Amino acid sequence: MPPETATGSVRSAELNEQIRALWMRAGGRLDEQQRAEYERLVTAWAAAVRADVAETV
C-alpha cells in the first residue's frame, strides 16, 4: 500500500520499522545526515499516529 493511501496505523507501523532500521544501520549513533532522516521519520510517525487517533474518534 503506498504511503499516501495507508491508514494511520499502517503508516505509523511502516515508519516505526524505518526508524528501527535506521538505528540498526547506524549502530546506535546517528551522524548529522542520519539525525536529519530520523527527525523526518519521527515527525511523519507522529502525524500518522495523530491520523490514526482521528480515524478512531
TrEMBL record:
Name of protein: Uncharacterized protein
